[in-house]
Amino acid sequence: MEKETTKLFDSELKVMSVLWNEGDLPAKRIAEKLTAEVGWNKNTTYTLIKRCMKKGAIERLEPNFVCHALIAKEEVQETETNELIDKVYDGSADKLFAALLGRKKLSTDQVEKLRQIVGELE
Asked: What pTM was estimated for this model as a whole?
């Protein structure tokens, strides 16, 4: 049976990103960071934190309304990647990989990293 994943929207991912990068933080500090980074007011951030809590992505710890991520960044990345492959590349990871390789903007280091990844899968 497949594990149920929580769908997070872009705005919710911004909140989660702060927690993934900084670790557990009071909601007030998350609001301050997102005000500085994206210009959100405190109420917007608190609404998004509460939405993430309802989805089971964040838990509230006391005292001081400390937020703790319950979902790992890697889990969300895997879900989002699978969704992208299904939606845009007809479920074909090789089409996604070919699209990445076809980009003219890849640096030599990025191409080498992709070669390493493929080598590890073989």
From this structure: 0.79
